[in-house]
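tl;dr need the bound structure. longer version: we got a ligand (iron/sulfur cluster) that a collaborator sent over and nobodys looked at where it sits. i said id run it. heres the input, straight from their email, havent touched it
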Amino acid sequence: MPLTPPPLSLYIHTPWCVRKCPYCDFNSHERGELPEEAYLQALLVDLEQDLQLAGERPVETVFIGGGTPSLMSPAFYRELFAGIRARLPLSEHAEITLEANPGTTEAARFEGFREAGINRLSIGVQSFNNGHLQALGRIHDASAAVRAATQARAAGFDNLNLDIMHALPGQSQAQALSDLEQAIALQPTHLSWYELTIEPNTVFYRSPPQQPDGDSMADTEEAGFALLARHNYHRYEVSAFARPGLECRHNRNYWEFGDYLGIGAGAHSKLTKAADNAILRFQKTRKPEDYLADPAQSRRQLQPVTGADRSFEALLNGLRLTGGISLQVIADRTGVNTAEWEGLLGDLQYRGLIAMEQGHIKCTRTGLQHLNGVLETLANTL
Ligand SMILES: C[S@@+](CC[C@H](N)C(=O)[O-])C[C@H]1O[C@@H](n2cnc3c(N)ncnc32)[C@H](O)[C@@H]1O
Ligand code: SF4
């Protein structure tokens, strides 16, 4: 089947932080002097190279992630968006998100980000418990997080996400729920509630902290989901909760096998070339100094996604959504004939782990609790 190109998003990576957190495996590096001007020019060169590959397509969402994007100045973003708008058609109602860390912001900076065209903010709070913030190596305390959220609001960011983590070292269920309650009290439009995972190549991997056991983690999750639902935050993805209609459009595009260009050190991209029946993945040079040295050559080899990998990747992402993913969308975006899956998926359906409803394939509640097992079965079946 011919491919239909999905919506296109733009991801911009800023790779610097004040200090590296012991649990973090993102491409982030302790900052020295921030090379703002050089990075700005590098991002635009990088974007131009990618646009030669992508052709002219409107961009529907932009996400500036890190690292700590709020370390860069409002002037950096003003110039960056002027450069982006000069090079591609940014949709009039594009969602433009920036990740901000408490402890790196003040009121004037938020106003500057808003003036630069950023219309959604994601604040990395993690916890409101100062002991846990210290254990996580964060540079801020709880009051700085409350201040950041309040100042962001005052600067006009009415579309606001807070990141909170649970399963923290020594954390009780009451403490985890108290973190959520304090987040809810700030009335964000969106909450991301992540379980702390121990990733290779982190300080926590080398000396693992004591986390709550599996059973109490599962109990805490159930209690947290109920608390969020009572406050009208609807769970639409494994870790994402939103007020109705305020889901993150950018992340939704990832989960629905949409296209994205990733610019900046280490950024990943996925691009559909319908005329060639091709789906490509590629990544940029990871180390900031190597990236800055030659941004025009920062794109590593193009990796075509073919055959069963297409179905698997679409399901790997789409099954994270509580409503699942439309079979028609999968067919349009992968070229796969999903009617052929019926026999293959019978076992997972019979075991009550996945369901087909109204043209969508989705995990059941139990399936979502055992998502890794479901994906393993799919990897062996498709
Ligand atoms: C790209 S990160 C960084 C955002 C921002 N620099 C910050 O730390 O506030 C986005 C979010 O991922 C979550 N995160 C990072 N590492 C994690 C881990 N090992 N386990 C669970 N969540 C993690 C944190 O909640 C973090 O805010
Ligand atoms: S501030 Fe955020 S991106 Fe930076 S090291 Fe910590 S978790 Fe990672």
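gonna send this back to them w/ a short note. The chain has two domains: 8-252, 324-382.
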